Every structure is written in structure tokens, then in C-alpha cells.
């Protein structure tokens, strides 16, 4: 049996954050149960594609999956267990926001075999949380975090952001002290990106959003990097840190170009050389009721060229870099066959380094990663 991962999208939130361009909706409580019923049918229908597969990870993302009721959570996981071959050691993650968990729901997650919770915090500063449009405080997060930890969960991720409006180096230092004292197993730390169509985008266009200068943003990044590494967190991907043996298996599936099936509104799949994407219209998704022949908005056969590009572009996000032997085994040519001149140019510019059989970004390369990675796109 081959290994596969599953992603399940829950597109509902209590409130839409000011920076968020994810496929999610607030004030949709009236359709959540209908959505879950349609999702369950899609999960059942996709099981034929995965009947000879061993599920190594499941990631329930959003939106805010923890907004679901206990019965809806149980229905989703009962369906997954009934229709898929789930590895006994599978990593099973659900995203959660503070204020959407209580002791009853945490017990349901445990009984459903969820073994990893990804908590959205973004900042420990209540003033910054308000600017972001978050609906919780640091104190509410801490209460939920302690509740999760005391219930027996031993694999928790905390999502944070930096380069926020009016954020200072001192704010980052204070956040790091608080987070490190909690000792989560995994920390994701992303730089704010102003996405088109968000409230922050409109404020930015009207010159009403004061962001840190680029050099300050880089100082924040390396402060985070150095502080977390000094406290036992391995920097294994550009924006991700983990204690020993706590790297996120599911995310590495994406970065290593391995197979996954995505289910739910707008979800994408990469399976047997094809990339699929579901429709984005919520009412249509509910009406289709899990018929996967009607859910696909697009189907693309991934060419060898595209596959190589994605392997390089995503794989170099990992701090371990690209394994040249793995590259040869996948495509039957040395990596230099395609990228000799690009590799030489990036080495001369100090952006990548050749370390034995691996290619990886340097510190300078990480600072200009978008440029360095774009060099591996074919003309």
C-alpha cells in the first residue's frame, strides 16, 4: 500500500480577520450542518481512490474547524475511520482558535484520535490582536492552551505572525518569552503579507497601515530564528520550528511533492500525477452533495516540467534542502542536467550552498528566497 495524506477544509469562522484571504466565511451557522453532510458524502466517495493507500496524515484546516459542534466532529471522524485505511501512527491535526474549544469538545477530539492541535494565536499582544481583527485575547488563548495541555495532548503547534502594523522588536521579544515558556512542540511564525481583497489591503492602499521597514522585518525574522534555535527548536522550514521529532509530517508532504487528497470547499488534491481543485461556491458545494464528478473546478495533468519546478520551488523551502540523489531517482537525470547554470549562478551569489549531495539555501538566500526559488522556474 502506498502512503497518502488527507486534507479536509472547514470554511467557517466566528469572524473574518483583517488580514485573511483564505476561503472562509463568517455568519454562516445556518448552513454548517448542510455543509458537513455534503462533506461526509465527498469523504465517502473519495475513498475508492484511496482504497489501496495507507493514510499517514489527516489535516482538518480552515477557516476554524474547531467551530464545529461535537456531533459534527464525531460524524467526520467516524466516516474517515470507516472508509479509509488510517495508519496506527498517523498524524491527525485539527486547527483551532481560542474561544472555540471547551472541555467537552477536547474530549471528543481525543476520542476521535486527533493527536495534534494547531492553535491560531498570531500575537501575545492584545492591542495587536485587536488590530488584526482577532476575536480573542492572550489570556483567552492561554486558558485554552492550558486546557488542551492538561487534557493530555502532547503535540501542539502555535501559529504566530510578525511584521504586523506598528509592531516593534520589543513586541517580538515579549512574544518569544511567553511562547517559549509554554514549550509547544511546534511553532509556525509567518511574516504578514498584505493580500488583495482584505481589509488590510484597503487600509494599506489608503496609507492607513504602518508596517515595519524591510530591514526591521528581516531583523525580526532572525531574532525569531536565533531565539527559537537557542531554546531547542529546530528551524526546519523557512517559517517553521519544532522540537526533536515534532516536525509537521503533513506539511512536509506538500513541500516534498508527495500525494494528498483534499476534500471540502476549494480544496486541492495532488494524486497520481494530477492536480484537482474543488469549486469555491458554498451553496453549489452543498447542492452537489459530495458528487466528486461535479465538484472539480479544474483538473490538470502535471507535466514533468511542472513537477520538477514544484519539487525545487517547494523543496528548497526546507532547511535541509534538495536531495540530489532523490532528484535523480525521480527523473532519471542529474539535477545539473536541468539547472547547471542556475545552480552555479546562485552559488556565486551566495544564495545556495552545495553540501554533499544536497542543495540548500544560505542565510542570504533565505532573505531573498522568493528570488532564489523563482530561478528554478523554466522559461
UniProtKB/TrEMBL annotation:
Asked whether the keyword Nucleus is assigned, the reply is: no
Which keywords, in A-to-Z order, does the entry hold? Answer: 4Fe-4S, Chaperone, Cytoplasm, Heme, Iron, Iron-sulfur, Metal-binding, S-adenosyl-L-methionine
- Signal peptide (from-to): none
Instruction: List the subcellular locations.
Output: Cytoplasm
**Residues covered by the Radical SAM core domain:** 1-234
Q: Which SUPFAM superfamilies match?
A: Radical SAM enzymes (SSF102114)
What InterPro entries is this protein classified in?
Aldolase_TIM, Coproporphyrinogen-III_oxidase, Elp3/MiaA/NifB-like_rSAM, HemN_C, HemW-like, rSAM, rSAM_sf
Q: Which GO terms describe its molecular function?
A: 4 iron, 4 sulfur cluster binding; coproporphyrinogen oxidase activity; metal ion binding
What biological processes does GO assign it?
A: porphyrin-containing compound biosynthetic process
Q: What does this protein do?
A: Probably acts as a heme chaperone, transferring heme to an unknown acceptor. Binds one molecule of heme per monomer, possibly covalently. Binds 1 [4Fe-4S] cluster. The cluster is coordinated with 3 cysteines and an exchangeable S-adenosyl-L-methionine.
The protein's name in its UniProt record: Heme chaperone HemW
Organism name: Vallitalea guaymasensis
Amino acid at each position: 500500500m502506498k502512503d497518502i495524506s488527507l486534507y479536509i477544509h472547514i470554511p467557517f469562522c466566528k469572524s473574518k480577520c483583517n488580514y485573511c484571504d483564505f476561503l472562509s466565511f463568517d455568519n454562516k451557522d445556518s448552513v454548517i450542518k448542510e455543509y458537513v453532510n455534503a462533506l461526509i458524502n465527498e469523504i465517502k466517495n473519495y475513498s475508492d481512490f484511496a482504497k489501496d493507500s495507507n493514510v499517514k496524515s489527516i489535516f482538518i484546516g480552515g477557516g476554524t474547524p474547531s467551530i464545529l459542534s461535537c456531533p459534527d466532529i464525531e460524524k467526520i471522524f467516524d466516516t474517515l475511520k470507516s472508509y479509509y485505511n488510517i495508519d496506527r501512527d498517523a498524524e491527525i491535526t485539527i486547527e483551532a482558535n481560542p474561544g472555540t474549544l471547551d472541555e467537552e469538545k477536547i474530549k471528543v477530539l481525543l476520542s476521535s484520535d486527533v493527536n495534534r492541535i494547531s492553535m491560531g494565536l498570531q500575537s501575545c499582544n492584545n492591542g495587536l490582536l485587536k488590530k488584526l481583527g482577532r476575536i480573542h485575547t492572550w489570556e483567552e488563548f492561554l486558558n485554552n492552551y492550558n486546557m488542551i495541555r492538561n487534557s493530555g495532548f502532547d503535540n501542539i503547534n502555535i501559529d504566530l505572525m510578525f511584521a504586523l502594523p506598528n509592531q516593534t522588536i520589543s513586541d517580538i521579544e515579549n512574544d518569544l518569552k511567553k511562547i517559549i515558556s509554554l514549550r509547544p512542540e511546534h511553532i509556525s511564525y509567518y511574516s504578514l503579507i498584505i493580500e488583495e481583497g482584505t481589509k488590510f489591503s484597503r487600509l494599506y492602499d489608503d496609507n492607513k497601515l504602518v508596517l515595519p521597514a524591510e530591514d526591521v522585518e528581516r531583523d525580526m525574522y532572525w531574532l525569531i530564528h536565533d531565539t527559537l534555535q537557542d531554546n531547542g527548536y529546530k528551524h526546519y522550514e523557512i517559517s517553521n520550528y519544532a522540537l526533536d521529532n515534532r516536525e509537521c509530517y503533513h506539511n512536509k508532504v506538500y513541500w516534498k511533492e508527495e500525494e494528498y487528497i483534499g476534500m471540502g470547499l476549494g480544496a486541492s488534491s495532488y494524486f497520481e500525477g494530477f492536480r484537482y481543485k474543488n469549486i469555491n461556491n458554498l451553496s453549489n458545494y452543498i447542492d452537489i452533495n459530495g458528487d466528486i464528478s461535479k465538484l472539480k473546478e479544474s483538473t490538470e495533468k502535471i507535466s514533468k516540467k511542472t513537477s520538477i519546478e514544484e519539487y525545487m520551488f517547494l523543496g528548497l523551502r526546507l532547511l535541509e534542502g534538495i536531495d540530489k540523489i532523490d532528484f535523480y531517482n525521480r527523473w532519471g537525470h542529474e539535477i545539473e542536467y536541468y539547472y547547471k547554470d542556475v545552480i552555479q549562478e546562485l552559488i556565486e551569489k551566495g544564495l545556495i550552498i552545495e553540501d554533499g549531495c544536497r542543495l540548500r539555501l544560505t542565510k542570504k538566500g533565505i532573505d531573498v528566497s522568493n528570488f532564489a526559488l523563482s530561478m528554478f522556474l523554466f522559461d
